[in-house]
């Protein structure tokens, strides 16, 4: 147990270091954006005195490294600052958008994870047959298409031609639960299609790699049907790598929603960061970027810890 705690502690420390480096990159990247923030906000007709006053009020007249430490200290205290575009508190601005993004990612996971497990088991059960090859072709095709292409194909068939689902995901706090689910259907399907292939392939590979083990042969000699051998004996022992891949894809679902949210005009965190970039609302861009980075690092850390806990051989030196 001590070795497990030590390794997990090392992973947590490395995750914290990674997040700190990412915060440096985010701050430096925003500072390197072309143009002057004060001039962009006031317009080209602003006088130099007005621009100088705004720069002072925004703290742009102090060195960049001091601004970074002030920003980092505020973030650690839970204060994201104030949006430049509308003067609202950034935490209040982000809260409903983050909820929408997490709900969208959860909906996509509810669709993709069961399908990936079932598809992987079926592909392993009928390995090297037409069914297995057909599943491989479909998954390889889906993983090859970018998100916006999948989104537009689904819009064409399910929204334009069939008229089953809306092409725009316009939701707010007054939207009913049924209306929200209907509006989220197409973006959730898009994300599910994008991440489904990777999880399905890993499920198949993990199960097939275990089929030569002695306990699998023993189960077969007992006369158990092949599907029961896979589900009862192979799948539980393959859950380690499968769980790791699922968590990594959940990280992608949350951080990779920007394109999908823009295509469907879904009011999530990805749409907010795009709008804020267009408005040159730097504090909002920094806050959203840091939330995306923290979520990705946290879920990758979770996947790393799961791989250790579910596979003790990784903790033992060879």
TrEMBL record:
Membrane topology of the entry: Multi-pass membrane protein
UniProt keyword Transmembrane helix present: yes
Main location: membrane
Keywords, alphabetical: Cell membrane, Membrane, Transmembrane, Transmembrane helix, Transport
Compartment(s): Cell membrane
Single Gene Ontology MF annotation: dipeptide transmembrane transporter activity
Keyword Glycoprotein in annotation: no
Family indicated by similarity: Belongs to the binding-protein-dependent transport system permease family.
Name of the protein this chain belongs to: ABC transporter permease
A Pfam entry, by short name: BPD_transp_1
Gene Ontology CC annotations of this record: plasma membrane
ABC transmembrane type-1 domain: residues covered: 98-303
Transmembrane segments: 12-33, 102-126, 138-165, 177-197, 238-264, 284-309
